[in-house]
Amino acid sequence: MGVLVDRNTKVIVQGITGHQGSFHAGQMMKFGTKVVAGISPGKSGTKFQDTVPIVDSVADAMSFSPDATMISVPAPFVKDAAFEAIDQRIKLIYILTEHVPFHDSMELISEARNRGLTVIGPNGPGITVPFECKIGIMPNQIFKEGDVAVASRSGTLTYEIVESLTRNGMGQSAVIGLGGDPVVGMNYIDVLKLYEADPKTKKIVLVGEIGGNNEELAAKYIKEHITKKVVAYITGRSAPPGKRMGHAGAIIEKGVGTAESKIKAFNEAGVKVADYPTDVPGLLK
Amino acid sequence: MGVLVDRNTKVIVQGITGHQGSFHAGQMMKFGTKVVAGISPGKSGTKFQDTVPIVDSVADAMSFSPDATMISVPAPFVKDAAFEAIDQRIKLIYILTEHVPFHDSMELISEARNRGLTVIGPNGPGITVPFECKIGIMPNQIFKEGDVAVASRSGTLTYEIVESLTRNGMGQSAVIGLGGDPVVGMNYIDVLKLYEADPKTKKIVLVGEIGGNNEELAAKYIKEHITKKVVAYITGRSAPPGKRMGHAGAIIEKGVGTAESKIKAFNEAGVKVADYPTDVPGLLK
Amino acid sequence: MNLYEYMGKDIFRKNGLPVPEGYVVEKQSDLKEYRKPVVVKSQILLGGRGKSGGIKFAKSGEELKSAVNELIGSKVRGLAVTKVLVEEMLNIQHEYYVSITLSREHRAPILIASASGGVEIESVPQKEIFTRVIDPLIGYSDYIGREASKFMNLKPEIASQFRAILKSLYRTFIEEDCELVEINPLVETKEGKLIAADAKVIIDNDALYRHKEFSITDPEKTPLELEAQAKGYSFIELDGKIGVIANGAGLTMATLDALTLHNGKPRNFLDLGGTDNVEIVANAFDLVLKADPKAILINIFGGVTKADTVAKGIVEAKKRFNISKPIVVRLSGFNEDEGRKILSENKIETYPTMMEAVERVVKVAGGA
Amino acid sequence: MNLYEYMGKDIFRKNGLPVPEGYVVEKQSDLKEYRKPVVVKSQILLGGRGKSGGIKFAKSGEELKSAVNELIGSKVRGLAVTKVLVEEMLNIQHEYYVSITLSREHRAPILIASASGGVEIESVPQKEIFTRVIDPLIGYSDYIGREASKFMNLKPEIASQFRAILKSLYRTFIEEDCELVEINPLVETKEGKLIAADAKVIIDNDALYRHKEFSITDPEKTPLELEAQAKGYSFIELDGKIGVIANGAGLTMATLDALTLHNGKPRNFLDLGGTDNVEIVANAFDLVLKADPKAILINIFGGVTKADTVAKGIVEAKKRFNISKPIVVRLSGFNEDEGRKILSENKIETYPTMMEAVERVVKVAGGA
After folding, report:
1. Which residue of C has its CA nearest to B112?
2. SS3 content of chain B, % helix, strand, coil (to 5)
3. Of A91, A255, D183, D218, whose CB neighbour count within 10 A is largest?
4. How far apart are CA B132 and CA B7, in angstroms?
5. C129: exposed, middle or buried (C-beta count within 10 Å: 0-12, 13-18, 19+)?
6. CB–CB of A81 and C146 under 8 A?
7. Is B139's Cβ below 8 Å from some Cβ in C?
8. Is the pLDDT of residue A246 over 70?
9. What is the pLDDT of residues C125-158, one digit of tens each?
10. What are chain D's partners, defined as 3 or more CB pairs within 8 angstroms?
11. Torsion angles phi and psi, residue C191, rounded to 5
12. Rounded to a whole number, what is the distance in Å from the CA of B278 to chain C's nearest CA?
């Protein structure tokens, strides 16, 4: 088993006939992911790309014994879709959608945790274990199999760093995008535990950004519990306080969550922090 | 360990300065129950019966390491008191209060179960393991130590039957009053599991009443899982349909939950059903 | 507390559920001008009104007047009709069933729905009924409605209305502290609209303090039961001869059962509850005496309620109400010796067991 | 979305929270007759208004008029004052602090309260601050308020008001989809009443679709930012010279960081998001051009956004807006070769890495 997923992970896609859902389901299949069914209410009986059966509900998809779901429905419907997946006890629930009200996320994540289920996202690029399984939207071509695990709150920035690793001959054991929202299912600490336990992972890259204190908590956790080498990159150094940089996660409020505070915390935990994304491979050596 | 409680069980009382709370806390202590603290907001620093410290909150009572709580506060405040106990992860939560809106009970019981905690009640007489521990309002003088376990939805009727057992030389290993409300923390099946597992218990008495289908479910469960001898008594045979007999549990609606249906279910499960409460000891022989 | 259809529909309307246009009529002068065909529905708390002549149709002003005339003041299924609901007649395409009630087993709300509505749900085959337990901490979510409407084979335009109804119905169930909210039939009109043609709503009595608007009178109770409720007693009138006062709902029911098994018929159910107050005992007699029984049976197992307190209450009541009817008492439990002593000093018969007391009271009341 | 104090107080009032009597004034003619001493408070979205002269007291009609006169049209902490809130003056006995906000760590609401209010909560010692994470599936329950009021050492009559306020404040937080509801100071008056003397409310932007009443304009945004928002772009004006278009919030921030580390100052933040639409790329230029930068840097890592689409968008924008300012492009990822080809055919500079592009744009923009 890789980190959370592997080549046997059976995935369903809630919203498979949508613009995003269909594009990324197709890309996932090209990557090698076992997409066993798609959900699109009212379209049961049809097939996605002539191979993947489409059903009306997660309940109906249970005959395919899915291990994971990708939720790609409009933001107002995400909570409902997530509860539908939780109700069927889908073990891994990845939410692609952005702009989900965080009150909805709080509720659905609380309930999933009560039931012992894992949520990734919302508003993140998902999880990739090259070349076992990809659930999410990371570009297929940037990966290389290897021993570096990446955890990031950002999407494109993750790709930038993963590509830079690949270009420098450093393959990845797992890449998880936590999501850019203030409330997400997995925080760094949850992912760090998985990476520490994963035999394939030798080194870890954390990609952080301004806002909140999850990087600081991660730094503390690394100091106390992580034996593997960790390198970090933090973005938002140049962001003015109080301005929201693009996604809800990235904001500095009342001096809390500045890049300086995060870099300091990492340095104190013995974690080197790269100035530029492209400096990450060098620091990993 | 007895059923759920024993002589080492540390009990707190939420509402210890109330009319009911103080009377029954006193009786429990006479029985031998370890009442370690009482809660009465605003009265911290004082003592109950010169011995039991009174504190303002369950949080403050945690220094006494309680295992169980008795909640005896007015019905509108029960949900809050229960959440307070749940928040502190008190393992056994007994609710004495009657007339708790069942919507409140649904929520608090759901949450307790999510956290792996046990709720007894609302609106029942509690739990007694003679003479280890009594939490609740059963009269002290009716018990005798022995091997008959009793589960009942009713209060005074339980005493009637327990006294009748004692008078016939049959002591009790445990007596649990489930509570007369339509929504209670423990159903017969939950209690039957405990009694089946309890080495001290040899025989089981179920006291049921009209309303709902919990007796029918219990009968089915007994047939499939219980190896010990079970005798039942059902009250409400003479109740007219649609009339609510005293507590919310006791009502016959649309032919569901009649005494006939329950007696039939027990008979089919090989459980003898007494006509009168005083017939129970004879059937146990 | 069972609500009349018109009260249920008021609640539905408040919570955004579609109901037919209509108004309540108690007397001819309440009638509004006739405009279109209407249904005139007796407001009683029993089903089967249609078959019992409690529902009439009117296609003219004259028919409306005469329907109201016939129904108000009549009896339907034995119940007096004091109000009728006058509603627009629906062009019925199909009748569905939907309700939310409590699952005691799951300690959670349960949704029940069927494409076979308009009849008692008990008569619908199990395989045509959709049921779904709802987690009370999460509540209704739209996917449940999608599963239900697929099960019921609803067309898309009906399904979306149906899901909106489920959402509002669940909110009603929660916000109004209901034991039951039932729409039967939920009508699909020929115009393609879903409308709640009936409304059955039961409010949890224990939650009435949060819903003052309903707490005035419970339409199902007799005047004496209402008086008892106001005085804080759990009291039900029955049709026998023997007045009963006991403590605890279970023990009181067991007492009625024992009477019945001994061919004695109880006149009432009265649960004293847990009390150690003489006045509460004495006043219970007032209620039972108003029901005019042949004899009175007291069955007390002392716990919270102390036997001596009950004895004092009985003595007090005997004096205060000058009771000459036979009183048979069974006293056990906390302070029983003292209680029996008080009673024997006042020449009131006591027995140590329920069985003996029951046998005795049936005898003094003159059998069934 | 940050709300002005007066908007926050409207929400408080709607949710049953006690606020001072008061009204909003935009011009002298809005003033009501003077009756009792009042506070006149500039409506701006920064704290520290008192120290900056943004709050005035008036003990006569004349003083009120002149306070309004002085404040409206003035600048407080650099922000133009267009509205003032005229409120009854409170007889302050004590000032408390209370707020509910999001704990990202716990993915749950967190209650923060202190008996030391009226100052920035950051300046209050940790041991004087009560914090409590609230389970979002359960919500606020009164015992939390009892623990808080005990911690704060409140007298019983104040404690019961405080608990009622917490209950309403939590409801406000949930019902209005808030990121923050803060009352600082929560005033205890000499008359023994608790009143919210200030109101800070932040609504989750992503939930604004459920709260149409707020979605008109975000008072914190510049006109250009509002225009961008209306067009669906995530856009922030900054004070440098180099226009920036990138995709993904993280990559865009990283681009600004890289510029800054190279002594280049960004004029803006613009996250294209994930798009494969030429028009969306072209229109992004319109916004950036309106901010009048010295040069424009495009940094794209193709994924959802395809590099060739972006290239076409850039070419289209260059033509449509007749751009003569230097444009420096970095293109990577999905369809990068095709994208670079399109650009080089149109004589637009491209670089394969972010670093090279950043170095180049700082140079052509003429340094910092």
Report:
1. C137
2. 35, 25, 40
3. D183
4. 4
5. middle
6. no
7. yes
8. no
9. 999 999 999 999 999 999 999 999 999 999 999 9
10. A, B, C
11. -80, 0
12. 8
> Using one digit for the tens of pLDDT, what is the confidence trace for B196-252?
999 999 999 999 998 888 999 999 999 999 999 999 999 988 887 766 666 555 565
Q: D137–A210: do the CB atoms touch at under 8 Å?
A: no
Q: Where are the beta strands (DSSP E) in A137-250?
A: 145-152, 172-177, 203-209, 229-235
Do C146 and A58 make contact, defined as CB atoms within 8 angstroms? no
Residues from chain C contacting residue B156 (CB–CB below 8 Å)? 246-248, 250-251, 301, 303
For A154, the closest of D236, D249, D256 (CB atoms) is D249
Residue C215 has pLDDT above 70, yes or no: no
Q: What is the CA radius of gyration of chain C?
A: 26
**C-beta atoms of B57 and D143 within 8 A:** yes
Residues for chain D: how many in total?
A: 368
pLDDT tens across D42-86, in order? 999 887 888 889 999 999 999 999 999 999 999 988 888 999 999
Interface check for D230 against chain C (CB to CB < 8 A): the answer is: no
The three-state secondary structure class of B125 is: coil
Give A227: exposed, middle or buried? Use CB within 10 Å, 0-12, 13-18, 19+: exposed
DSSP C121: G
**What's the ipTM?**
0.88
**pLDDT tens string B29-66:** 999 999 999 999 989 999 999 999 999 999 999 999 99
Listed in sequence order, the residues at least 6 apart from D80 whose beta carbon sits closer than 8 Å to its beta carbon are: D73, D74
Neighbouring C-alpha atoms within 13 Å toward the C-beta of D34: 18
- Radius of gyration of chain A from its Cα atoms, rounded to whole angstroms: 18
Catalytic residue positions of D? 97, 182
Q: What is the mean pLDDT of residues D143-168?
A: 96
Any C CB within 8 A of A247 CB = no
End-to-end CA distance of chain C: 32
Q: Read off φ and ψ for residue D136, nearest 5 degrees.
A: -65, -25
Residue C137 sits at the chain A interface (C-beta within 8 Å): yes
Planar angle of CA D208, D210, D216, nearest 5 degrees? 45
Query: Cα(C203)–Cα(C180) distance, rounded to whole angstroms?
Result: 7
Measure the CA angle with vertex D36, ends D33 and D37; round to 5°: 115
CA dihedral C202, C205, C207, C208 (to 10 degrees): 90
Cα–Cα dist D220/D202, whole Å: 11
The answer on pLDDT for C76 being more than 80 is yes
Question: Which of B54, B56, B71 is the best mutation test for D, with the most CBs of D within 10 A?
Answer: B56
Pairing type for strands C108-114 and C129-133 reads antiparallel
Res. C350: pLDDT tops 70: yes
d(CA B263, CA B218): 12
Q: Which of A98, A231, A207 is nearest to A158 (CA)?
A: A207
Question: What are the Cα distances from residue A122, in Å, to A104, A184, A185, C317, D180?
Answer: 10, 6, 7, 70, 21
State pLDDT tens for residues D239-289. 999 999 999 889 999 999 999 999 999 999 999 887 778 899 999 999 999
Say whether B103 is catalytic: no
Which residues, in sequence order, are CB contacts of C179 under 8 Å at separation 6+?
B102, B182, C101, C102, C202, C203, C204
B239 and chain D: CB distance < 8 Å anywhere?
no
Amino acid symbol at A35: V
Q: How many CB atoms lie within 10 A of CB B116?
A: 8
For residue range A205-235, list pLDDT tens digits in order. 999 998 888 999 999 999 999 999 999 999 9
Q: How far is CA D166 from CA D18, D196, D204, in A?
A: 11, 12, 20
> Across-strand partners of D358?
none
